[in-house]
């Protein structure tokens, strides 16, 4: 059985060679961190090489998504806190007043008249073309009565978008989100209004190129309009 020869002292690397190899490895790791890791992960590009290699854009998207996720968590926590306060709040006085009685007569009549007007309107279909520049957000809404339904579908050209389908009660109040997603290129379904108010879609382009959204809506409504 043959064992390999043990190297003699002259063949072993010297202390100076080991030090130089260690320094070279540390320098290589530092260069990789500055030119690749920092731009791709944190959008920090002190040399400009990351943007040339399109790594900085990747880091910017990651940072934007992280910021949006943090904002969503804050919003969800605020909604939970508000709901908790509402549950813990003492019940309001049920004493009647002349004004309350008058409102009880007028409000249902006004709502019934509006419902008749909406029912008499013919169903319509609109295709709305929305062009989003990089980092731009645009919102479109429709006024609906509680229980009204809108069939919708949309698709993008040029890249994915982040979106939120939601409604805002008439006269103000907490906004209700029906559906949200990030980095998607299409969606379709039926939106049912949970209350009287404005309902619609908010789209945001987090990419680096313009994106076109083609939104198709079908139902009984007067118009679809941009609100921002």
What is the strand and helix layout of this fold?
Elements: H1 15-42, H2 49-52, H3 55-88, H4 98-120, E1 124-132, E2 137-144, E3 149-157, E4 161-169, E5 176-184, E6 186-192, E7 197-204, E8 211-219, E9 225-226
Antiparallel strand pairs: 1-8, 2-7, 2-9, 3-6, 3-8, 4-5, 4-7
Structure summary:
By secondary structure, the protein is α+β, with helices and mostly antiparallel strands. 39% of the residues lie in helices and 31% in strands.
Between the first and last Cα atoms, what is the distance in angstroms? Answer: 83 Å
Kindly name the structural category: alpha+beta
Please indicate the percent range of residues in DSSP E strands (runs of 2 or more).
25-35%
- Helix and strand element order: HHHHEEEEEEEEE
Summarize model confidence as the mean pLDDT: 81
- Biggest sheet features: 5 strands, antiparallel
Number of helices: 4
Looking at the structure, what is the overall shape? elongated
Low-pLDDT stretches are none
Rounded to the nearest angstrom, the radius of gyration is 30 Å
Strand order, sheet with most strands: 5-4-7-2-9
Number of strands: 9
The percentage helix is 25-40%
